[in-house]
Design brief:
Layout lengths: L40 E4 L8 H16 L8 H16 L3 H8 L3 H32 L25 H18 L7 H11 L3 E5 L4 H11 L1 E3 L3 H19 L17 E8 L1 H4 L6 H11 L6 E5 L2 H8 L4 E5 L10 E6 L2 E9 L3 E3 L5 H12 L2
Parallel strand pairs: 1-2, 1-5, 2-4, 3-4, 5-6, 6-9
Antiparallel strand pairs: 7-8
Helix pairs in contact: 1-2, 1-5, 2-4, 4-5, 5-7, 5-8, 10-11
Length: about 375
Amino acid sequence: MFATFSSVPPPTTPGSHSPSRPTIEDARQFSSNVPTSMPLAIFLDSGDVINDNKLRGPQWIDMIGTFVSSTPLGGPGELWGIANGKLVHKLHREGLWYDLLQKCESHKVLDRLNNLLWANECSQFVNGMILEARKKRLEGAMPEAIVTKEDYSEWPLVVLPEDEEDVILISVMMHLYCLAHVKADLPGAVEAIKTLKQDQGFEMYTCSGEQSRDLTLTFRTLGLGTIGDTMTTTLEKIRKRVQDYATRYPDHATVDILGPNPKEPVPVFTQIYGPDLVDAHKNSTRFYAEIFRDCGVDPREAIVVDDKEHMLSWAKVLGVRTVLISSVDRTGREMLVCVPDPEDNSKTKLVPAVDHQLNSLAELPLLTAYWKKQLQK
């Protein structure tokens, strides 16, 4: 529901302004650090690794406006979208999200508070704008434009349901609706995932701060699925929740929350991990440790891909190989972490948190193919 908006440009060739398909020979420029053995599994973040949050944000705002206007909440859909954007800023730019993480030991509790926070904060903003419009109208002056020139003074105030469970249900439905209708994959990301699984044989996982339920809907939209019935089981649970909403609010359940069924997804992920599956927030090494424990993968045989260096530092201490997706020049500002010395476990040593930095996920199959070629020599 709440995302940090930043983007990573796709790789380009010199003198070109469009994405290019690199060759294995081009890999030498970023492949001096070849592993001593080939990793077996890859763990991917979602935001700004697979999906472009900068594109996702505006789509999300539009979808919120479309959905909320059909709910018992009412209010101008446009204002709900603006309110969500302001809450995103408050959560991630002002540190409120990290405050919530510190207060909630359980991810289940965090998810509940997150949904209540969204409904309360956004409804307060919407009502504030309606009241301001009424005041301006009484004073004889039309409200100044916020985003449009619409006069909001005639709108009734938003009243949240008295039962918190109803508030949470509506919030969750809004969230699911946006996830099922927003599509903002980064150039080459989906193709890269398929190549890593189908052509190169990696076990593919996610290690995102988003819930596994949410990731399932996102990947469903992108045509990516799980091996086995994990995705089917998750979608059945989601459809049951949607039916609960339709039963609770038959007069308002007028939009198709999950949208049309997409074509059969390509099974690529062994498991879609979010904090809910391991009951650990993505704010420490424990998050990654629990994932590795659950799936049985040795961290030393894993690649973790993220767009944030400090998150990779939490994974690096477990012995994984890390890949940062970023176009930012970090020369002279690399983060170091303390890890066990492989030659003497009683000692530790400082190593970079990031082993490799790529402009986009589209480059990862090239990098791993180069490793394989070097190790076969």
